[in-house]
Amino acid sequence: MPSPRPFLTAEWRDLVLVNYAIAPRLLQPFVPAGTTLDLWDGLALVSLVGFRFASTRVLGVSIPGHREFPEVNLRFYVRRHSGAESRRAVVFLRELV
């Protein structure tokens, strides 16, 4: 069976990534059910990410006026545990497009 077509494809250009550590208790209200904060040395990391989306396609289709645009997002990191497996994920607090 062929792989399903990706929903969104794009290139990230002019990337700026700023990470900072904060007390985990500040993010706890935003942690999705079934996940835990992904801590680093006991601290939660929050990232401010700015970049330019380029060559953007939705389901393989390039939409005029939406092929290239800037985005800034504020995110933090979580883990989901399932048996012996642990998967990392990102939670977006804000996305500005």
Short summary of the structure?
4% of the residues lie in helices and 63% in strands. The chain contains 1 helix and 6 strands. It has one helix at 24-27, and strands at 8-22, 36-37, 39-40, 43-58, 69-82, 85-96.
Please mark out the parts with pLDDT under 50 across 5 or more consecutive residues, or reply none.
Answer: none
> Can you give the helix content as a percent range?
under 10%
Judged by helices, strands and strand pairing, the structural class is mainly beta
How confident is the prediction overall: mean pLDDT?
94
Q: Mind describing the biggest β-sheet?
A: 6 strands, antiparallel
Number of helices: 1
Q: Looking at the structure, what is the overall shape? A: globular
Number of strands: 6
Structure characterization notes:
The chain has 97 residues and is mainly β. It is 4% helix and 63% strand. It has one helix spanning 24-27; strands at residues 8-22, 36-37, 39-40, 43-58, 69-82, 85-96. The protein starts with 7 loop residues before the first strand and ends with a strand. The model has no long low-confidence stretch (mean pLDDT 94).
